[in-house]
Amino acid sequence: MEITPFTIDVPEADVRDLKARLENTRWPSDVVSDWSRGTPASYARGLADRWASDFDWAAQQDRLNTFPQFTTTIDGQLYHFVHVRSAIASATPLLMAHGYPSSFVEFTRMIGSLVDPEAHGGRPEDAFHVVIPSLPGFGFSTPATRPGLGIKGAAAAFDQIMRGLGYERYGVHGGDVGAGIAEELSILAGDRIIGSLVVTDPGAIATEYTPPTDHLTPDEQVRLQALKAARVEDFGYLGLQTTRPQSIAYGLTDSPVMQLTWIVEKVREWTDPNRDLPEDAVDIDHLLTLVSVYWFGKGGAGAANFLYEAMHAEASWGRTHDRPQGFVSFGEEPLVRRVLDPNHERAYWNEHPEGGHFPAMEQPDLLVDDLRAFFATFR
Length: 379
Hints:
This protein is an alpha/beta fold.
């Protein structure tokens, strides 16, 4: 496998084009002033103005480029990944798999603590060699070059990347789509997976993929149905992207405000419910960096097509593995463990009342602690 060093270098012309598009946006009016119909224009205008005027992409690009990055081509698809080796030779190799709507950017504020634990409140034995690939069509693994690259294909490619880097055994971490990658890798790579630590939130038990819940009490069943009912209108994004991804791809590729509000609405919806606005839950420059990578890499179209592939691919339901799996739940909801680990059989379980769907951006220090605690049991 040929691995090529990669540096993010967005042409200045593309940065100027972004600002011009933001400044020339045709704005809709607000029918309602709240978030019940999506990101309100009154909020979006202010955030778009910040993106165009106050956000320093050059500084964020330099920050991202402090992490060694590479590309490789597997079965015709370009894959981008971050690879940061710890100075501690005995560090545990760790593959970090992002979800939707995310990218490698989500994990960047955890890298220092993971690779250099002594400088961040940890012990030398807590060190990790960190590998963060971008899913096909996301980040700078763009463009998506062919159909068929769903979770199975991505997991196989990620395993090939790890082997190409010399990591025959490694741990896996992920959430959302990344949790599916972790599960698929545990099946695919078997004993070469040390263990996987998956993050989740209350929304994970309010989908059609919820495990059987016959064991719940009547009151718990009522609560679960209420959670599911609250998510019904939230799934419009998924219905569109898993049926007609090309239709939404035009807007996400041509309009930066479309891409911005498409992501920000989910950040507001899925982060800690005790935080009123997206910037209350996630550092605003971190969020705008995430959105900028989507914009410059044309990742909106790639992400939509990946979700389509994932939904239409043969699932791995029913296949089992013996790899240790831990869960960390962010957001206070007692039903999460009652649904996902009713018999307390997981190799590791922890719950945090803070945070939500994006713990690496919302509560990175807590997540680092969980990764250290989980993988310490396998040394």
